[in-house]
Amino acid sequence: MKDIDALDPLVEGYLAYLADVSRKARGTVRDVRCSLKRVSAKMSRIRSGVPLWKLSLGDFMVWLERERDDGTSVQSLAKYLSHVRGLLDYAWRSGRAERNVLDGFRLQDARRPVKPRCLTMEEARHLVESCAHNNSQQRRDRIIVLLLYGCGLRTRELCGLRVQDIDRERRELFVVRGKGDRQRHVPIPGGVYTELLAYLVERGGRRGPLFRTLQKRRPINPKEVCQVVREAADRAGLDDTLTPKVLRHSYATHLMDRGVDLSVIASLMGHRSPQETGVYLHVLGDKTQEAVQCLDPAGGNGGAT
C-alpha cells in the first residue's frame, strides 16, 4: 500500500477538496491527513499494495480488531473511521471505487463513559474569586477564566474570538469555527457580560482578536490560556494541573446538575448530538435508579393506581 506521504493523487485531491470546497480548517485537514496516514500504515500489514478505497469491509474489520488489541480507544477509532469513510465516499463519487464499504458502519461502545474531571461549585467559586481585576492583565485573565467556565468554550474557540463576535443586543458569543467547523451562539451569563463590557471599553477598538498578548499585542494562543488557568488555580489553592478543558466539563456538569435538558447542553457545547453529551450524566448519581423504581409496573407503589 502506498504511504500517504507519497501524496497519492486521489488522497491529495480529497484533502484539497476538504480545504478548498468544504472550507475545513487547516487543523481539521491536517488531522484527516494524520488519520489516513496511520490507517494506511496499519493496513499495509493486512493487504499490502491495496489502496484504502479498494479494501473490503472484512479488511477494515481485521484492522479494527488489531487496533482494539493495541489499546486504541473507541473515540480514536471512531475518528479514524469517520476520516476514512470520507475518503471512501470521495473515491466512490470520483469513480475510483465501486462503493463505500464503510457507509453506514458505526462503532458501538458498550462500556460506560469515563467520568470527566470537573470542579465542584465551591471550587469554581474559589477559582473566580482568585482572579483579581486591579490592572489590565488581571482583568484580561479574569475574563478568560469567566468565559471558559461561564460559556463552556474550548481553548481554541476562546483564542479565536474576535470583538465583532460579541452580539451586544442578544448578549451572545458567536463561535465562528468550533470543533468540526461547527458554528454556534452561546449566551453570556449576566455577571460575565457586565465584566466583559468593561473589558471591551478598556481594550478599545471594534474589530480584531478579543484577547491579545500584553507585550506584542498578538492574538493569545492556547499555551498562554492554559498558563492563565494554572495560575488562577494556584491562587485558589486548587490542583495546579487544572486545564481549560476541566472548566468546560464543569460548565456542562453544573448545567446538568441544575436540570438543564441534555439537548440544550449539547447545543451550547457545540456537540453534534446529545449522545456526545451523555458523558455528563454521571451527575445524576442514583437518581436514575430512583426514577425507574417509581415506575415499576410489577410491584410496589409504582404500579398502584
Question: Helix count?
Answer: 13
Mind describing the biggest β-sheet? 3 strands, antiparallel
Strands side by side in the biggest sheet: 1-2-3
What structural category arises from helix and sheet content?
Answer: mainly alpha
Task: Tell me the number of structural domains.
Answer: 2
Per CATH, the superfamily of the largest domain is Intergrase catalytic core
Q: Which architecture of the largest domain does the CATH hierarchy give at level 2?
A: Orthogonal Bundle
Helical proportion?
40-55%
What is the string of helix and strand elements? HHHHHHHEEEHHHHHH
Could you please describe the fold and organization of this structure?
The chain is mainly alpha-helical and 305 residues long. Helix content is 51%, strand content 3%. The protein contains 13 helices and three strands, in the order αααααααβββαααααα. A hairpin with an 8-residue loop joins strand 2 and strand 3 (184-187). It is elongated and about 65 Å long.
Q: Main attributes?
A:
single chain; 305 residues; mainly alpha; hpI Integrase, Chain A; 3-stranded antiparallel β-sheet; 51% helix; 3% strand; elongated
